[in-house]
Protein: protein acetyllysine N-acetyltransferase
Organism: Hansschlegelia plantiphila
Amino acid sequence: MERDDQRKIERLGTLLRSMRRGVAFTGAGLSTGSGIPDFRSPGGLWTRHRPIDFDSFLSSAESRREAWRRKFAIDDATNGAAPNAAHRAVARLVEQGGIATVVTQNIDGLHQASGVTGEKLIELHGNGTYATCLDCGARHELAEIRPGFEATGEPPACRICGGFVKSATISFGQPMPAEAMRRAQDAAREADVFLVLGSSLVVYPAAALPVSAKQAGAALVIANREPTDLDPIADLVLRTDLVALLAPFA
């Protein structure tokens, strides 16, 4: 390891030990170590099963059928994914009180599986481990939906009101959840350290959160394998594997 890299890791350790209102902002790069592919990986799952945009889902029964076909194909390919050492490190820092809030762009439920729950976790893009009715909001479990879909090929309808049932994720063209964004913005402004972990910071408005934190006085740390547009304003930039970087803190 080069001396500069060692100094960066030592500085990261100092920040992690000293923070009291830390925010972990996590993206797809945190879950690649669990076998879940990054959205932009060439030839990956998301290339072959690109999500259906929200307007198409609402307007076309065929699009709804295709959305569910792609959803279950992706689930089959990622079945068995478990939290990796990076997830466990984040959970440990939450448990110890250094991280006050985890804001995630991920929909895989691995933060919950690692032990981060309730008011400590904000899911900006929803959660792909269950579904909801777009009309009444009723929760539907995927294991209950799938047999009927595979038997008939018809998209599921809400058992309560008959409305469209959709994976509880935010699709392209679907409004961001206002309450989740408000909570995330509040957490960013209150943070003493803002940790970007595995996000390329290209999806807005979520990618504006590190800027808000920095402007409010937080130390901004960006740990991502590839450069981001916000690297120039960060106090610390680490371009490395997140599992290797965070495993000592798990």
Observations:
- The chain has ten helices and nine strands.
- The two ends are 21 Å apart (CA to CA).
